[in-house]
């Protein structure tokens, strides 16, 4: 006899949280130093990680800088937008 491990309908709602990505887009306005400082301050990146993300965004046009659920990413999105960076939550 096979033992069933729970009913799929009994899965808690929070286990179905959709993971989203905060995307930074390249622009011709902000300096590398400003973008790096913002990623360190807002996204809590290490300096090396922030520099890599800035370079990827520059050369590829965009870079995923943080992942999480919408409610985690929205304050970061708001702050980065206030600082003049072009970002989206996808």
Number of helices: 3
Radius of gyration: 18 Å
Strand order of the largest sheet: 2-1-3
- Biggest pleated sheet: 3 strands, antiparallel
User: What helical percentage do the residues reach?
Assistant: 40-55%
Categorize the overall geometry: globular
List how many beta strands DSSP finds: 3
The termini sit apart by 44 Å
Integer average pLDDT: 88
Name the beta content range: 15-25%
Uncertain spans: 1-13
Q: What tags apply to this protein structure?
A:
single chain, 90 residues, alpha+beta, 43% helix, 18% strand, disordered N terminus
Concise account of the structure shown:
The protein has 90 residues and is an alpha+beta fold. The chain has a domain at 31-89. Helix content is 43%, strand content 18%.
Write a structural description:
The chain is an alpha+beta fold and 90 residues long. It has a domain at 31-89. It is built from 3 helices and 3 strands. Strands 2-1-3 form a 3-stranded antiparallel sheet. It is globular and about 35 Å long. The termini are far apart.
How do the strands and helices of this protein lay out in sequence?
Blueprint: E1 20-25, H1 32-43, H2 47-60, E2 62-68, H3 70-82, E3 87-89
Antiparallel strand pairs: 1-2, 1-3
């Amino acid at each position: 006899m096979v033992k069933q491990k729970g009913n799929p309908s009994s899965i808690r709602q929070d286990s179905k949280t959709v993971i989203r990505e905060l995307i930074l887009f390249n622009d011709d306005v902000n300096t590398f130093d400003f973008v790096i400082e913002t990623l360190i301050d807002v996204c809590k990146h290490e300096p090396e990680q922030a520099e890599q993300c800035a370079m990827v965004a520059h050369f590829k046009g965009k870079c995923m800088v943080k992942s999480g659920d919408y409610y985690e990413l929205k304050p970061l999105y708001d702050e980065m937008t206030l600082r003049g960076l072009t970002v989206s939550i996808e």
